[in-house]
Structure formats: structure tokens, C-alpha cells
Amino acid sequence: MHSLYAIGRLLPRLSRHSISPGPVCLASSSRPLRRCYYSEQYPAKAPYSSAEDAILSAALVHVPRFGFSSRALILGAADAGYPEVSTQLFPHGVFDLIRYYLVTQRLALKNRVRFPEDADLRVGGKIRTLTLERLRANKDVIYQWQGALGHMSLLGNIPASLSELHSLSDEIWYLAGDKSVDSSWYTKRASLAAIYASSELFMTTDTSKDFAETEAFLDRRLEDVQKLGKATSGVGQFVGFWAGSTVNLARSWGLRV
């Protein structure tokens, strides 16, 4: 079983939009493997062209009603002032809309959550705050999200889906101030990816006010891990859970898997 880190390094090459906030420092005998980028020092290149961004952002407005669908894409193109044929900009169709949503939500997280420099908050508390904020950002589309998970589980979409989940986990750890350079770098991200994926899936059936049950579910998962960054069954457990859950969702939505 490949590690989530290996998947994260390999899979962006397979997808149309490889999102990288900046350069990555490589390992050497005098410099451990570490993440040396960020927007303060390396302004991120826009991941989408202006036309793509206009159509996809407009299409998201229609997702609460029509789901992540070709109809939402066509309506988005019309709203942005483009003809229906312009949806051919997106060779992966609906999945391109789903991935746009994932990427833009991830990149927006750093602006939605800011921790005061003098805040007395440990990394674990920051991880909880950031993860909960990312989950809450799904509130407008959550009842269409099972359909999105079905598309994400299709064989051709799994690599990019896992890669983006890995990027989200990495982003959360970075924004929480994690500066580890040892082997725990990998296990932390694998553990958080599993926690986020299971919480997001739980949220799709949560009917409680303000998704209070999802928040409680997240807290239980964080408590189960006890100390984020400790080795768990990690990647294998996560990949098995994610693949099994999303494949079943895809079948329930009538998609061929």
C-alpha cells in the first residue's frame, strides 16, 4: 500500500490542474524534508483561467438546487456570459466542477480562520477549529455531497480526489503552525485525512441544528486519535474507508463503478 504522501506527490501529475501554493523544499543531508512555501513569500499562481473561474464559480450557485451536474455547469456558463459549448473547457465534466469546489474551499481557509499571534491555543485546538470551519463551509451543498462523493469514487477520479484530500490535510496542519520535520509529518496528515473524510461523510446525513452532531462526531474522532501525529493504522485504514464508502455511494446513485 502506497503512503498518502507518495500518492500526494504522484497524483497531481495525472490531473489537469495541479495546485501548488509554491515551491517545495527537497531533502538533503543537511536539510530535512520540509515544506518551505507559502503565500506570504511565494504568491500562488491562479489555478484556473479567468474563463474557467467565471464559469465554475457561477455554476456553484446552482449546485444547491441541481447538484454537481452538467446542468449546473451549463447554467453557470450562461450566467457568466459564455455559450453552452464553453463547457468543453472541462474535459472531466462534473468532476471538474467538484474539484474546483474542493480547491477553492481549501485555498479560502487561510482567509476564513486567522489566529492572533498572542492566542493561547495549542496546535491540536487549531486543528479542530480549522477542520470544523472547513466542514461548515459545506453547509450550502452538503445535501448534494453524496452525489459528489459518488463521482469522486469513479476509477479515473480517485487519484485526483485523494491528492486533493491530502492537500487539504497538509494545509490544515500548516495553518495550525505545525513545524515538524520528522516521520510524524506523514502520519499526522494521514490521520487527519481519515478524520476529515469520515466527518464529512457523517455530515451528509446530519439533520441537527447547525450540524451540532457533526461537531460532536469530529470531537470524538479527534479524541480517538488522542494525540495527533502519533502513528495509527493511518493510510491503509483511510484509503480502505474512503474507497468503500464512496463506491457504495456511487452505486446508490446509479453510477457505474
Gyration radius from CA atoms, angstroms: 18 Å
Oligomer: single chain
Largest sheet: none
The overall average pLDDT, rounded, is: 78
Low-confidence stretches: 1-43, 228-235
Structural class by sheet pairing and helices: mainly alpha
For the secondary structure, the number of strands is 0
Estimate the helix proportion, in percent.
55-70%
The number of distinct helices, counting runs of at least 4 residues, comes to 11
User: Rough shape?
Assistant: globular
Strand percent estimate: under 5%
H and E string: HHHHHHHHHHH
How far apart lie the N and C ends?
A: 21 Å
TL;DR of this structure?
The protein has helices at 4-10, 50-60, 63-66, 70-79, 94-112, 123-136, 145-152, 158-175, 184-203, 212-225, 234-252.
Report what the structure shows.
The structure is a single chain. The protein is mainly α and 257 residues long. Helices cover 56% and strands 0% of the residues. It contains 11 helices and no strands. Helix 1 packs across helix 8, helix 8 packs across helix 9 and helix 9 runs parallel beside helix 11. The chain is globular. The two termini are 21 Å apart. The N terminus is likely disordered.
SSE layout and pairing:
Elements: H1 4-10, H2 50-60, H3 63-66, H4 70-79, H5 94-112, H6 123-136, H7 145-152, H8 158-175, H9 184-203, H10 212-225, H11 234-252
Helix pairs in contact: 1-8, 2-4, 5-8, 7-11, 8-9, 9-10, 9-11
